[in-house]
């Protein structure tokens, strides 16, 4: 066996061991939180002395999870809708139109994705509070829109680039207007990309902590911010009820992640389009 083959085998083994170690640690942390959310007392031993589901009803009432989940749904839905309405036309322009400074404009669009949210989150929150939007639901929506709209642009641009411009030209030759072309031709072709971008933005917004934390008020907290306050706010709270809230947050995010990976694979779809086009 050659040295290169031995090196590759050793690398694969080391990488597999490292990945197994990481997965095992993450699974252990999730298991501890999940088990504790059902446990009554857990002072000794590997498992609690008894199990109960009362911590979930207690967390629901104590942390007002009904209102928090409704606020989260409103914020996430608005961010997804506005991101698509802004990002799809912007991606179409960047994919179709050549103009001076296009690379600079593209870089500006992608800049919120390249830098940590906290670096621009504090100035953004300051501006929102100065215009009386900080601490409100609209403040949370606008803050999350800053990285999410460029994310839609990044996802949608490859989809639009794969659509042959001759299809649109042919439609115009036969008298189709801009709205007709968009509704009858572009929308069916772009729908997989729009669904991919929407689901990924949805998951991203649910898990976005920094920008939401800086702009949310008492009545505009999403689930991730409410979980943070439940852990670190003043007062004594049961660890089991906090873990129950954490399980609800994990399940909410996990469901949408599974939906995203079950139905949407942007890289695979773009790759298939390129293969078809090249063949």
What does this structure look like?
It is a single chain. This protein is mainly α and 279 residues long. Helices cover 80% and strands 0% of the residues. It is built from twelve helices and no strands. It has helices at residues 3-38, 54-62, 65-96, 102-114, 117-130, 137-161, 165-173, 178-207, 210-215, 223-232, 239-263, 266-278. Helix 8 packs antiparallel against helix 11. It is found in: Cell inner membrane; Cell membrane. InterPro entries: MetI-like, MetI-like_sf. It is a multi-pass membrane protein.
Structural key phrases:
MetI-like_sf; transport; 0% strand; disordered C terminus; mainly alpha; single chain; 12 helices; cell inner membrane; globular; 279 residues
Helices and strands, with pairings:
Blueprint: H1 3-38, H2 54-62, H3 65-96, H4 102-114, H5 117-130, H6 137-161, H7 165-173, H8 178-207, H9 210-215, H10 223-232, H11 239-263, H12 266-278
Helix pairs in contact: 1-11, 2-11, 3-6, 3-8, 4-6, 6-8, 7-8, 8-11, 10-11
Mean pLDDT rating = 83
Fraction of helical residues: over 70%
User: How many DSSP helices?
Assistant: 12
Radius of gyration from the alpha-carbon trace, in angstroms: 24 Å
Q: What is the helix/strand order?
A: HHHHHHHHHHHH
- Low-confidence segments, given as residue ranges, are 268-279
Sheet/helix structural class: mainly alpha
Summary, kept brief:
Helices cover 80% and strands 0% of the residues. It is mainly α and 279 residues long.
